[in-house]
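Deliverable D4.2, example record:
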Amino acid sequence: MRNKKKQSAMPKVWAWISFIIFGFIIALLGTSLFKQESPAQVLRSWFTRSVEEGDLSTYDKEDLVKIIETQRKRIDSLDQQLDRYIRHFGIRSALIEVEGETLNLRSEPTITSDIIDKIPNNTIIGIIRCQEETVFLDGADGSWCRIKYAGQEGWVWGNYLKEIDF
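Output generated by the structure prediction step:
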């Protein structure tokens, strides 16, 4: 009797293994069709870690240079799309509110970057975008905002802006 049970269990195991393999192949082909990629590309994406996950140790210098260049092109493309959007829909407006007489318009979103211009207090400016990253500056959490003032673009500390609606 024991032999019959063992013999009947083996076909069930092979049936399950076949079912799993068949399911894997169907998932692979379905994903390949959905993503419009070859099955080899899909397999590669399933079994390798991407750069977005933060593992750069498996890449050599040339690969990293290519990855950085690709990301720069994506950022440039997004900046161009944002510029088209701003030209088409306009930008938000804000009032400069500082304790002193002026607010520094900077070339980069850092306190140490070059000052492009000084914006008088109570001036209305256009906000292009604000960074999502929050940093601690002047005793408060806030973010840097890219603005347009007097035909120039630059960065100001967002906590000094009071957004206004017209």
